[in-house]
């Protein structure tokens, strides 16, 4: 009997098993991290540029360290390579839909949509429910490393610091 013929006569059963998803891909964790990040921005609001930088920094210890070194002036903006996350828009949309964030345009007009516009001037603001989420995060024993990062950085993250990362000049 040929090997292929033997294989065709085998009987087997497939059973569904839980699949572990890496923590950086879990939407609820990412929403909690972004809420924590926005809470540490000026007036509890952030531009999409700020969100991308903070989202990048929160991924690993090394990226948190790089951002801290940049903010303290130890390294130049040209030494920081921020990687944009293509899924960030979806996470923000989920958070807006869950009423964790609200979206505003550059004229501070409320945007009723959960999708950002193409103007590039959309800001994300923490809602009352978002503040409650941040309070529950800080009260619990979760996201300890990330909270420690924000306690060292504090509210030092300004829009001007973020812009310097993207606009290099000689």
Count of separate structural domains: 1
The geometry reads as globular
Structural class: alpha+beta
Question: Mean pLDDT score, rounded?
Answer: 82
Q: How many beta strands in the DSSP annotation? A: 4
Question: Total helix count?
Answer: 8
Helix content: 40-55%
Largest sheet: 4 strands, antiparallel
CATH class: Mainly Alpha
Strand content: 5-15%
CATH fold type:
Arc Repressor Mutant, subunit A
What is the terminal-to-terminal distance?
Answer: 74 Å
Radius of gyration from CA coordinates: 21 Å
Low-confidence stretches: none
Which architecture does the CATH hierarchy give at level 2?
Orthogonal Bundle
User: Strands across the major sheet, in which order?
Assistant: 1-4-2-3
Order of helices and strands: HHEHHHEEEHHH
Describe the structure in your own words.
With 170 residues, the protein is an alpha+beta fold. The protein has a single domain, classed as Arc Repressor Mutant, subunit A, CATH 1.10.10. 49% of the residues lie in helices and 8% in strands. The protein has eight helices and four strands, in the order H-H-E-H-H-H-E-E-E-H-H-H. The chain has helices spanning 3-9, 27-39, 48-59, 61-71, 88-97, 128-139, 144-153, 159-166, and strands spanning 45-47, 101-104, 110-111, 123-126. It has a four-stranded antiparallel sheet. Strand 2 and strand 3 form a beta hairpin. The longest helix has 13 residues, at 27-39. It is globular.
Write the layout of secondary structure elements.
Blueprint: H1 3-9, H2 27-39, E1 45-47, H3 48-59, H4 61-71, H5 88-97, E2 101-104, E3 110-111, E4 123-126, H6 128-139, H7 144-153, H8 159-166
Antiparallel strand pairs: 1-4, 2-3, 2-4
Helix pairs in contact: 2-3, 2-5, 2-6, 3-4
């Amino acid at each position: 009997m040929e090997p292929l013929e033997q294989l065709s006569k085998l009987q087997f059963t497939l059973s569904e098993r839980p699949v572990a998803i890496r923590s950086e891909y879990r939407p609820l964790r990412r929403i909690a991290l972004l809420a924590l990040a926005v809470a540490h921005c000026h007036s509890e609001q952030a531009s999409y540029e700020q969100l991308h930088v903070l989202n990048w920094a929160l991924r690993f210890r090394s990226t948190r360290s790089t951002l801290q070194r940049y903010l303290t002036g130890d390294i130049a903006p040209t030494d920081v390579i921020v990687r944009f996350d293509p899924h960030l828009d979806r996470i923000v949309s989920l958070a807006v839909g869950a009423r964790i964030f609200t979206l505003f345009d550059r004229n501070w007009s409320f945007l009723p949509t959960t999708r950002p516009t193409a103007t590039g001037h959309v800001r994300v603001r923490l809602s009352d429910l978002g503040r409650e989420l941040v309070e529950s995060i800080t009260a619990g024993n979760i996201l300890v490393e990330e909270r420690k990062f924000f306690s060292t950085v504090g509210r030092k993250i300004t829009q001007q610091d973020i812009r310097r990362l993207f606009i290099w000049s000689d």
